[in-house]
Specification:
By secondary structure, the protein is an alpha/beta fold. The protein has helices spanning 76-96, 111-123, 139-144, 168-180, 198-211, and strands spanning 7-10, 21-27, 49-53, 57-59, 62-64, 68-70, 73-74, 99-109, 129-133, 154-160, 184-190. InterPro entries: AB_hydrolase_fold (IPR029058), LYPA1-2/EST-like (IPR050565), PLipase/COase/thioEstase (IPR003140).
Length: 214
């Protein structure tokens, strides 16, 4: 069976036979593609198999994981389809590559953060860590999605204080929701808009490498 999505793979240059590696799934923002986020994870390929995933929907000059009917409100059926494809891809990767299934991480910006946090809620402790940059959790996900145990899950959630696309308050709500579900949450804010600062990259890479030893 082929992969359910298009992706770009980065991995250690010298692979050790029979070794299973931590895995990082990377998801971009709306109108972007699988190449866009790779500079943010440069150097991490020494430690991870990195799969940068293209959204399955054409969007302007790029791609998206779901479409939007109103501000902060994805089309439910399209969103569900995107989440199903991403979840299937995680299973595909774990079957096809030498992956340590106890060391699965998700990283996303904007739409990528939205789907990363949603996958974390639905897959629970099968995910070890999530880095969610400037995203939100749709209301129907909060109210209607089945949520799994999250005691093992750790998150690095960040949001720009001056985000002109997705309000800063939504970032705070993300952190509160996961804390209430007993996940371990690091919440960082930056004097930025809807973007990823250099300091944020340093901070989430440091957090990620430290979490590997947890």
């Amino acid at each position: 069976m082929g992969a359910p999505v298009i992706y770009e793979l980065r991995k250690p240059k010298e692979l050790i036979p029979n070794k299973q590696y931590p895995c990082l799934f990377v998801m971009h923002g709306i109108g972007s593609n699988e190449q866009n986020m790779l500079p943010l994870v440069q150097g991490l390929e020494d430690h991870f198999y990195i799969f940068s995933i293209r959204g399955h929907l054409q969007q302007a000059q790029g791609f998206a994981y779901f479409s939007i009917q109103a501000f902060g409100k994805p089309h439910r059926d399209v969103f569900d389809e995107g989440i199903a494809k991403l979840s299937s891809f995680i299973d595909f990767v774990c079957e096809q590559y030498p992956i340590d299934v106890s060391q699965l991480y998700l990283l996303g910006f904007s739409q990528g953060a939205i789907v990363s946090m949603t996958l974390g809620l639905m897959r629970g402790n099968s995910i070890k860590g999530i880095i969610a940059l400037n995203g939100y959790i749709p209301q129907f996900v909060k109210e209607e999605y089945d949520k799994q145990s999250l005691e093992r899950l750790a998150l690095f959630i960040s949001h720009g204080q001056f985000d002109q696309v997705l309000p800063y308050e939504w970032g705070k709500e993300n952190a509160e929701l996961f804390r209430n579900l007993h996940a371990s949450v690091t919440f960082n804010t930056y004097a930025e808009g809807h973007t990823v600062s250099k300091q944020s990259v340093i901070d989430f890479q440091t957090w990620l490498l430290n979490d590997l030893n947890r």
